[in-house]
Design goal:
The complex is a heterodimer of chains A (261) and B (236).
Chain A: E1 4-14, E2 19-30, E3 35-39, H1 46-53, E4 61-66, E5 69-70, H2 76-83, E6 86-90, H3 101-111, H4 116-130, H5 145-157, E7 163-167, H6 175-192, E8 195-200, H7 203-209, E9 212-217, E10 220-226, H8 227-232, H9 237-259
Parallel strand pairs in A: 3-8, 3-9, 6-7, 7-8
Antiparallel strand pairs in A: 1-2, 1-4, 4-5, 9-10
Chain B: H1 8-15, H2 18-55, H3 65-80, H4 83-98, H5 103-128, H6 132-140, H7 145-184, H8 187-196, H9 201-232
Helix pairs in contact in B: 1-9, 2-5, 2-7, 2-8, 2-9, 3-5, 4-5, 4-7, 5-7, 6-7, 7-8, 7-9, 8-9
The chains are: A alpha/beta (261), B mainly alpha (236).
Bound molecules: adenosine-5'-diphosphate (ADP) and magnesium ion (MG).
Magnesium ion binds next to helix 1 of chain A.
Chain lengths: 261, 236
Amino acid sequence: MSFIEIKDLHKTFADKNKSNLVLNGIDLSVEKGDIFGIVGFSGAGKSTLVRCINRLEEPDSGSVVIGGVDITALSKKELALERRKIGMIFQSFNLFESKTVWQNIAYPLRLEKMKKKDIEARVSEVLSLIGLEDKRNAYPGELSGGQKQRVGIGRTLANSPDVILCDEATSALDPQTTISVLDLLKEINQKLGVTILLITHELEAIKYICRNMAVIENGVIIEQGLVSGIFQNPNSKTGKIFIDVYSSFQNKEYYGEGEGI
Amino acid sequence: MSLRSNTLWEVLKSAFSQRVWEQVWPAVGDTLYMVAVSALITLVLGVILGVLLYITPRGGICPAPWFNRVAGTIVNCLRSLPQMIMIIVTLPLARAVLGKGYGSGACIIALAASCTPMFGRMAESALTEVSKGKLEAAKAMGSSTLQIIFMVLLPEALASLTRAFTTALIAIVSMTALAGSFGAGGIGDIAVRYGFQRFQHDMLIATVLVLIVIVQIIQVAGDVVSRTLLKKWKLI
Ligand SMILES: Nc1ncnc2c1ncn2[C@@H]1O[C@H](COP(=O)(O)OP(=O)(O)O)[C@@H](O)[C@H]1O
Ligand SMILES: [Mg+2]
């Protein structure tokens, strides 16, 4: 059995007058230690999917099993404990602005009532891992986007999670910063063996760090496999469009450099 | 000294005389005492009320829509009473609780009853300014509802809560002055008894000055605190 097993996941958002079927039977399995990418257009249901994994959004039916634990079957209390092993980073970082970098990273440890001394040691470790030792007393308000996302990553790392869910984690960053954040995720994956689920509309990001990927369209996974395979031979319409757009951007860059304008 | 028999200049000078302030100072003390106690009650109850109103609607961090609707309706009812009516309404309550329907104790009950719902609503809207994303991040890290409230929601809203409380505090001062005319004592009492009933306009001017100074100090202090927080967090 894979580390993350999602089976027949359904989610409908019901408004007063119309209902919006967003996830229409998602099946997905992710191996332990993988960096798995999910790509899809805006509104395809990517965010809803990740949010159903840690139940920030309650799925209507289907199951999510992580490391043998059926997340969908947990009580509220059990869920809170299990969530400590499921990290999440966001496009808008969602750092606590009234807390310093140090306090942000210490937050999940304080939830566990860890001893002060142990917190200090763990936060220092994390700070050096994310390369922000010199910013320990800075507030998020004085950090750049890339630094903020590093703190976001550090904050989820503090608890030594098994999985990190990334919802458009680099989509608010410039290309260079994106690469440095993706490098950090790669490093974490290799050093700590954390499984990473990367959800994005940026194919470059997936190409850069993922081994496996899936394409989501209208609330179903229409294609899944090795990144290299899908890039060479996309079967789905969405997959084709993404790869086409991706390669035409690549060519533009090439031309631009060639003409030197 | 009255404007009826003296010039404005004489009345103004007299407003700073020892004779006037001998009577005004103790009243200032009474007023500050009533303001301080009711402010404390309003602060504590108002924050609790604001948090409850904020977390209980459908889609809130601790949904209890039924409770939310009832609490919201009660708050709206209390808020629809003008302060003067609230004082009259709470007098029997004060008599039942404290044994007398006048004096600073009675005033404090009326103040808290009137200002808690107001500040509760203001606190609720201050909490609304905290982005939903921060609460989701806290949830995703496995925080309990209480941990979210005390470790994220309130600290993140601290600057706006300070601003809201500043406004509430000023309302408390003005209502304390009003309660003075209902036997609460303090500045309002002086203004009514001497300034209004006996035409002692020097006393009236002195009370107005005191109120202006108190309100200024509160406003400036509130601004300083909230600006200091925002500066510290590098948000301004
Ligand atoms: N809380 C919500 N309430 C109602 N509709 C929602 C909610 N969240 C998302 N949706 C709808 O679900 C669809 C998919 O959204 P989302 O999962 O955010 O897509 P993506 O992340 O792929 O851009 C959209 O049509 C969006 O309007
Ligand atoms: Mg999204």
